[in-house]
Amino acid sequence: MLRNIFSAGDWFLRSGIQETDGGVARHYRTDLRRNSPISTEITGYAAHTLVYLHSLNGDERYLAGAESAARFLACKAWQPETRTMPFEIEPGRYTYFFDCGIVARGLLAVWRATGNDQYLETAAAVGAAMVRDFSAPEGDFHPVLELPARQPIERDGARWSRSPGCYQLKSAMAWWELAEATGDKRFRAHYDRVLEQALHTSREFLPGHSDRAKVMDRLHAFAYFLEGLLPRAAEPCCAAALRDGIARMRALLEEIAPVFERADVYAQLLRIRLYADAAGVVPLDPAAAEDEAHALRGFQAASGDPQLDGGFYFGRRGSEWLPYVNPVSTAFALQALAQYHGGSGLPLRHLLI
After folding, report:
1. Per-residue H/E/C for 137-148
2. CA gap 263, 162 in Å, rounded
3. What is the pLDDT of residues 77-104, one digit of tens each?
4. Nearest 10 degrees: Cα torsion 109, 112, 118, 119
5. For the chain, what is the domain count?
6. Residue 64: which residues within 8 A CB-CB, separation 6 or more?
7. Over the stretch 199-257, which tens digit does the pLDDT of each residue have?
8. In what side-by-side order are the strands of the sheet with 320-321?
9. Closest by Cα among 63, 68, 129 to 97
10. DSSP for 170-230, written as a single string
11. CB–CB of 236/274 below 8 Å?
12. Which domain holds residue 172?
């Protein structure tokens, strides 16, 4: 199985999903045979993924790819004059709270692997911008700001990515890690603020929509909430949320999968099972884990085309693949399968992609 995992890893290196300047595209369009635009969030995820792969086998190609992504984020995407990390840079019209946290965590992962303080400094600046720019009078955090004015766009309760919610806890993990890296305890307090809000609102997040396909999308976001609990997983309220959340995710996934299924949801559910079991808060369900691993393996592309081979398809409606080979799906899948099948053990929490 490790061969399949490194095939997925090599897809990041040889498929062209990472462009020459280090930026990583949102996905490869199989119908159009081209990449979608570069995203700073996806570049952050890719940097984190390549560091994780390097931790498995020491292949310097992975670390070089991770550094290329980090340089793109620190030197090209980050706007030092406005101290802003845009969602895309051509044009940079919006900045997302969630994306900023993913970028900061990716930069921290590369900093830990290389010792290059530029990445830590940029991660800390991004973390500070998350507090400065996104804090809302209501006490939560705006999900999206319009640039260059950094004004919040109108919230849309029907779209989870345009609303504040429990999923933002995954991004807030950047503050926890920045507190560890810098010694600045103020970052930890911001994480705890989001944790309190997330625990209060998480029950209402699912199903959250009458359209079952939209519920599957919300499962992906809800898994971010469960992942974001990991720094405090042993605390009773967080352990209870993990137990309840894993069960709710599984029930809805089984219900919706015959109509629409996403690779990242299988990967996130399998991965959080493994972490929760390791934390001693939710014993692993071996049958459910094997079912999720089996389903996840089916999303990996095998092709003579290097733009496809080894990558994971985003999703499937019935028997029809959606036309996206997706870096995030591939990242989550290779990590989940490495942990489950590869005998590599669970990585440290800060290596959770």
Report:
1. CCCCECCEEECC
2. 23
3. 999 988 999 999 888 899 999 999 999 9
4. 10
5. 1
6. none
7. 999 999 999 999 999 999 999 999 999 999 999 999 999 999 999 999 999 999 999 99
8. 260-262, 315-317, 320-321
9. 129
10. HHHHHHHHHHHHH--HHHHHHHHHHHHHHHHHGGGTSS--SSHHHHHHHHHHHHHHHHHTG
11. no
12. 2-351
Closest CA to 193 of 140, 246, 247: 140
Smallest Cα–Cα separation from 251: which of 288, 210, 213? 288
- Cβ–Cβ under 8 Å, residues 5 and 12: no
The one-letter amino acid at 147: L
Written in H, E and C, the secondary structure of 80-127 is CCCCECCCCCCCCCEEEHHHHHHHHHHHHHHHHHHCCHHHHHHHHHHH
Q: Which residue has the tokens 């001693």?
A: 280
**Predicted confidence (pLDDT) at residue 164 exceeds the cutoff of 90:** yes
Q: What are phi and psi of 338, to 5 degrees?
A: -60, -40
Could you tell me the CATH number of the domain that includes residue 241?
1.50.10.10
